[in-house]
Amino acid sequence: MDISDRKKRILRAIVESYVESAEPVGSKAICSDLGLSSATIRNEMAELTALGLLEQPHTSAGRVPSSKGYRVYVNELMHDRTLSAQETFELNNALRQRITKLDSLLADAGRLVADFTHYPVYALTAGSSGMKIRRFDFILVDKNTLIVVVMLDNDQVKNKLLHFPAGIDEALVRKLSTVFNSGFTGLESSEITHELVSACETACGDTEGIVASVAGFAIAALDEAAPRQAYLSGAASILEHPEYRDPDKAQRILAYLSDDSKLMTLPAPDESGEVKILIGPENVAEELSDSSVVVASYDLGGDVKGLLGVVGPTRMDYANISAHLSYLARELRIFLGGAGTLPQLGSGPPGPDEK
Amino acid sequence: MDISDRKKRILRAIVESYVESAEPVGSKAICSDLGLSSATIRNEMAELTALGLLEQPHTSAGRVPSSKGYRVYVNELMHDRTLSAQETFELNNALRQRITKLDSLLADAGRLVADFTHYPVYALTAGSSGMKIRRFDFILVDKNTLIVVVMLDNDQVKNKLLHFPAGIDEALVRKLSTVFNSGFTGLESSEITHELVSACETACGDTEGIVASVAGFAIAALDEAAPRQAYLSGAASILEHPEYRDPDKAQRILAYLSDDSKLMTLPAPDESGEVKILIGPENVAEELSDSSVVVASYDLGGDVKGLLGVVGPTRMDYANISAHLSYLARELRIFLGGAGTLPQLGSGPPGPDEK
DNA sequence: TATTAGCACTCTATGCCTCTGAGTGCTAAA
DNA sequence: TTTAGCACTCAGAGGCATAGAGTGCTAATA
Q: Using CA atoms in the order B345, B350, B354, B355, what is the torsion angle rounded to 10 degrees?
């Protein structure tokens, strides 16, 4: 945006005052900070309004930043907010204390951010895994019962108990092991076709649907390895903010945020940036068109990303929120990175010999 | 409650009118239905107010049922509401369509009730399992990697991948299998003591902590087999009801409902009844003292129960909600009963050969 | 004796009015 | 180019009268 330096300073002052007070900002309120008379600022304000960066709720009120105004602020005027030692200490503390199980990492991380920011936070996974099968094992429990164990590319292990009334013997189990380990390893979910399964059934001489059951389980295991999950935390805190004092407005946005399938469509930061800020109408979803979203991503192993999104009014402390989010995303990256690929997601707490 | 028949009819009329309209009920509004003049009803109303069954927002307003009034209504006056064929059809339809995976049964059931009732609904598990271990299996992946598979009493199977930098050989795996299968089967989580683990370490000649890792996993598997879970659905719909138009009030109750640990403390129906109704101050939690909860339970196998709780203002259509809840709880019981003990909770979708 | 019609009374909600004050835009002076 | 000054605008608060719903009480009625 090509505007004079003084206009920028004024815009910044207005944004920051408004973010703090939630009251339209008058010319007097900021003139002392800028060393200019209120009249001068009034003139500049009029021009900023003409440029579409400020808005006036009514003639005799102060100015409020428009979405465009916030965008200019975020892109050009926002001071980098680095967290204080005290703040990083607290954040780290909370992280270590509350994120213990990888199982619930997504939900826990969301809750943590919600507690720190006092805004609703969604946490979700994005991206597909292209996960592959590494090996099959079969455990014969008794003549009707078989446990299938599948180990995936990223060291996840999944199992399933199957009952076969027709009965199974050791020989069949060995044959299954050979056929599945030679025919199915290295395959993705989509590569396990009906033809392949039929071929294996012939190879095993299986007429009881055993092969089909095992193959079905393998597909399910692959699909579940990188499930799309979504959690919402701190929903109630939306009501703290004056923008959402109107119950209808609050209800609309809460209903939107409670719908997992809608959350799934929310955007992730681009490859380059670590935090993405969407202001008001920049949100595709109509329900968010007068709210803002600050979203950060971190790797969950494979092609899977974790997303943490803070939702609030456009009058948000963008600097503060994005500082917290990007710090936390970085910490999560380290936290997860230390374990190499994602270990054992969904199968118990880390043992003493896991890094 | 020992009151005249006519008073009961009047109380019922007031409750039902108020539940529908959310407006204080005047004597004129119900006199035609009861074939009495408004003056007579006014006299009765005054007495019902003296008895504490009705309240008056202010002198020149109609009457509103008190918590005590609702209690009398629920205990003595409420007509049994049986769902119409149309309604059971729709409910069944929704049930079959939306509850497919046992994994997410709890959450799905909650969401379903929330959609039908337009109130927030919590779904949670209650009770402990006393689950035991049935057998151990060990799969040696390579010389540093071992998969432990544990089968529990209720046919659940859990696994974990362990890395041991020091290396493992076939002989050790066989020894582990013998020791664990003889020493640990039939034990509950609490019975796996430090002494037992030490004894096994000696028996296996293990100095690398392998035994400890496996035992730790076994404990975790037992504890996780019947986890306490909680889900909240339809939170946003609380704002639809005039009682919660005040954002502060709405926020308080939403914050309460969003706290899983607080939900866990909510009561379950007694052994006898299938639906329990808690009206206003009957709720122990202060946050719920001007709200009501209707809660139903259904068996989840073992000693574990599933709870479905509908939360709303005391001005609730108790007959309708409890009819829906008890019907649904019954259906879930059938749905789950068909599968005997809870099969495979948390380990993949049902295969074609599971009953 | 139980019920009802009638009436005075109470109290909230609504609309209307005025007043206040914050903030503006414009003009003229510095 | 900046600033002081001034007239103007408009939302919001407070005061006031009014309408209307509903009550409690009394006296008449069945």
A: 70
Q: Are A220 and B258 within 8 A, CB to CB?
A: no
Tell me which of B149, B240, B258, B345 to substitute to probe the interface with A (most A C-beta atoms closer than 10 Å): B258
pLDDT of residue A346: 34
Torsion of CA B261, B264, B267, B269, to 10 degrees: 160
- Cβ-defined contact of A347 to B240 (cutoff 8 Å): no
Which is nearest to B346 in space by CA: B154, B201, B206?
B154
Separation in Å, CA of B78 to nearest CA in chain A: 31
Residues of A in contact with B161 (CB under 8 A): 151, 155-157, 343-344, 347
In 10 A of CB B96, how many CB atoms?
A: 11
pLDDT tens across B125-146, in order?
A: 877 657 789 999 999 999 999 9
- Write out the two tokens for B76: 């003595």
Cα separation, A297 vs A276, in Å, equals: 9
Q: How far is the CA of A276 from the C1' of C24 (A)?
A: 37
From chain B, the residues in CB contact with A239 under 8 A are 247-248, 250-251, 254
Q: According to the model, what pLDDT value does residue B353 have? A: 39
For the CA of A36 and the C1' of D11, the distance in angstroms is: 28
Distances in Å between the Cα of A138 and the Cα atoms of A37, A72, A114, A183, B351 are 82, 61, 44, 15, 16
pLDDT at A191: 87
> How confident is chain A (355 residues) per 10-residue block, as mean pLDDT?
91 97 95 92 96 95 96 95 94 86 82 96 81 91 92 85 89 93 89 90 87 90 78 96 94 96 90 87 96 93 83 97 94 71 36 36
Put simply, the answer to whether A239 touches B233 (Cβ < 8 Å) is no
Are A352 and B213 inside 8 Å of each other by CB? yes
pLDDT at A272: 66
**SS3 breakdown of chain A: % helix, strand, coil, rounded to 5?**
50, 20, 35
Quick one: tokens of A325? 């989010």
* A24 CB closer than 7 A to any strand C atom: yes
Centre a 10 Å sphere on the Cβ of residue A319 and count the other Cβ atoms it contains: 18
Residue in B299, B288, B287 with CA at minimum distance from that of residue B330: B299
How far apart (Å, rounded) are the C-alpha atoms in residues B267 and B103? 24
Residue A59 CA to D10 C1' — how many Å? 7
Query: What is the per-residue pLDDT across B46-63, written as a single tens digit (0 to 9) for each?
Result: 999 999 999 999 999 999
Amino acid at site B264: M
**Contact, B5 CB vs strand C, < 7 Å:** no
pLDDT at B350 > cutoff 50: no
Q: How far apart (Å, rounded) are the C-alpha atoms in residues B9 and B13?
A: 6
Mean pLDDT of chain B, nearest integer: 88
Pair of tokens at residue A117? 């920011």
Q: Which amino acid belongs to residue A101?
A: K
Instruction: Determine, for residues B220 and A348 on separate chains, whether the beta-carbon distance falls below 8 Å.
Output: yes
* Nearest by CB: A224 against B161, B245, B348: B348
pLDDT band at B339 (very low <50, low <70, confident <90, very high): very low
How many Å is the maximal CA-CA distance in chain A? Answer: 93
Q: Does the CB of B46 fall within 7 Å of any strand D atom?
A: yes
Distance, Å, A47 CA → D1 C1': 16
CA of A57 to C1' of C19 (A): 22
Chains A and B: how many Cβ contacts under 8 Å? 144
**What token pair was written down for B43?**
């006299």
| pLDDT on residue A62 | 94
User: pLDDT digits over B291-301, tens only?
Assistant: 999 999 998 76
Q: How far apart are CA B259 and CA B263, in angstroms?
A: 6
